[in-house]
């Protein structure tokens, strides 16, 4: 299994996803500032993975006796859309408050243990999602996915790719079409790389080919991850997801979202309230540092879009598969 992130005696070790697929390099974050930089620079990315990274960053800050509020605020300011980041920081805050009467060395140890547990839990949650989602994947068909919602986007195994892995493990004969996912190319660079490591047949397509193949009858379903899901089931995911969802509906192809409960934001009634990160123009005007547009070209670069719940066939969670109407179904799920 790909080791996306782990706690070591030397610091938080993570694979540098900006160097993939050409180089498999691991970096060590020794301070919470290092972790914050890694999240901001997308050295580590994917909603569950940055949640784990944030928890470990908090633990590093506590171990260094840094000001706790500053540590949490610094990590929270790295990226605005993926709610797992804030969920993990809040979990660490709650624990820290409960430990206030203990000696500093015991607080440090308990905070480190909590961060490590969040990492372990994430893998177990992904495996559970895989078990729930595998029956939804049609045998002898192609699965289309967008961006990277695999081991690299989590502590391991993956959300959307975890469902695919579980379907293959159950004996189903499937292959994968991976959208390249402009402008950061997570599909081309990351999804193809990790599925090839697993020996799962994977074909790379450009984003604007999705409609062609969804119309062809070859695609059995679409499975994507999520960065934040509102209380009504609206889903924020990598830019371009909304377009794929509309095309899937037009061609009567099931569209599934795989996400842990930590990705749900029940404080937001709809996806209209989800903050959308705006990233640097250079991601659009350049590819690997090579200019592909005239100088000073105006750029819009939202990192995410929101898919309305009406386009989503089902949401796969660690507790089971949720179907419309989502507001009621998600409320019931949280009560189980």
Class of secondary structure makeup: alpha/beta
Percent helix, as a range, is: 40-55%
Mean pLDDT: 97
Low-pLDDT regions:
none
**How many structural domains are formed by the residues?**
2
Q: What's the CATH superfamily of the largest domain, by name?
A: Translation initiation factor eif-2b, domain 2
Which percent band covers the strand fraction?
A: 15-25%
Strand order of the largest sheet: 6-5-4-7-10-15-16
Secondary-structure element string? EEEHHHHHEHEHEHEEEHEEHEEEEEH
Distance between the termini: 31 Å
Number of strands: 16
Rg over CA atoms? 19 Å
CATH class of the largest domain: Alpha Beta
CATH architecture of the largest domain: 3-Layer(aba) Sandwich
Please count the helical segments: 11
- Main sheet attributes: strand count, strand direction, barrel closure: 7 strands, mixed
CATH topology (level 3) name of the largest domain = Rossmann fold
